[in-house]
């Protein structure tokens, strides 16, 4: 394993501890300008997010109605009622974003897919970087004010549903995640820089609870006036 990644995993709670669990649950409140651009404005209602750790699967509740939730897997997105009754579904959901640009409208299944793949990625970071099929390498460090952040570039396999195949993860001297850069392929490849902060600990696992994704300029700097997505995370538990 990459030496830097090994240290990062230890700092976040150790891989052997992570492997003790099957799921993480958290309350999320999300917002930002991307949802309005897509015609699906996000309200400030707290929602309960469940992410499975040993497979790419996630669900959020409520979604669209008080008795509805989503179910995301790598090859299907669905909206269903709590009794399991199917409301809507789409197979091979990534294909439905073909030709999309930043302002292309989304339907509710588009929105559900984005929520599912994004939160699965965020809530499994940095441990997903050690998954089979993921390759990482350390790139040039990033200077941020008086700090120097070390950068891991991750190359993801094509079968994994995530923002794009190559993403950069920035870590401070304490090996905590400070920033996550990617291109949002399902929205025309818009470049994003997501700043992370406010670490919390649950069951010995450490994770950032505040995420702010901004459009990223050609100088690789986030553009403060262009907040794409905000996520606040509370009440984290592992099982």
Briefly summarize what is shown:
The chain is mainly β and 239 residues long.
**Overall shape:** globular
Q: Got a strand count?
A: 13
Pattern of helices and strands: HHEHEEEEEHEEEEEEE
CATH class: Mainly Beta
Helical proportion? 10-25%
Number of helices: 4
Alpha-beta content class? mainly beta
Low-pLDDT stretches: none
Going across the major beta sheet, what is the strand order?
Answer: 6-5-4-3-2-1-13-12-11-10-9-8-7
CATH architecture call: Clam
Work out the radius of gyration. 17 Å
Number of spatially distinct domains:
1
Give the amount of beta strand, in percent: over 45%
Q: Calculate the terminal CA-CA distance, rounded to whole Å.
A: 26 Å
> What do the pLDDT scores average to?
97
In CATH, the topology is named outer membrane lipoprotein receptor (LolB), chain A
Largest sheet: 13 strands, antiparallel
Features:
239 residues, mainly beta, outer membrane lipoprotein receptor (LolB), chain A, 13-stranded antiparallel beta sheet, 13 strands, 15% helix, globular
Architecture overview:
- The chain has one domain (3-43, 99-238): outer membrane lipoprotein receptor (LolB), chain A (Clam), CATH 2.50.20.
- Helices cover 15% and strands 47% of the residues.
- It has four helices and 13 strands.
- It is globular and about 50 Å long.
């Amino acid at each position: 394993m990459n030496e830097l990644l090994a240290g990062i995993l230890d700092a976040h709670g150790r891989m052997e501890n992570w492997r003790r669990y099957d799921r993480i649950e958290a309350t999320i409140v999300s917002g930002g300008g991307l949802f309005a651009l897509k015609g699906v404005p996000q309200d400030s209602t707290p929602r309960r997010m469940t992410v499975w750790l040993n497979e790419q699967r996630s669900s959020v509740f409520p979604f669209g109605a008080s008795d509805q939730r989503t179910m995301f897997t790598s090859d299907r997105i669905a909206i269903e009622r709590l009794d399991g009754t199917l409301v809507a579904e789409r197979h091979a959901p990534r294909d439905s974003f073909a030709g999309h640009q930043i302002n292309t409208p989304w339907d509710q299944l588009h929105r559900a897919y984005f929520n599912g793949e994004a939160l699965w990625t965020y809530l499994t970071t940095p441990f997903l970087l050690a998954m089979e099929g993921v390759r990482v390498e350390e790139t040039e460090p990033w200077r941020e004010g008086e700090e120097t952040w070390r950068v891991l570039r991750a190359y993801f396999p094509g079968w994994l549903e995530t923002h794009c195949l190559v993403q950069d993860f920035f870590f401070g001297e304490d090996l905590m995640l400070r920033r996550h850069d990617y291109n949002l392929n399902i929205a025309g490849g818009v470049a994003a820089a997501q700043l992370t902060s406010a670490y919390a600990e649950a069951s010995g696992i450490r994770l950032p609870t505040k995420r702010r994704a901004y459009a990223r300029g050609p100088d690789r700097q986030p553009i403060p006036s262009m907040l794409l997505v905000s996520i606040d995370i509370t009440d984290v538990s592992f099982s």
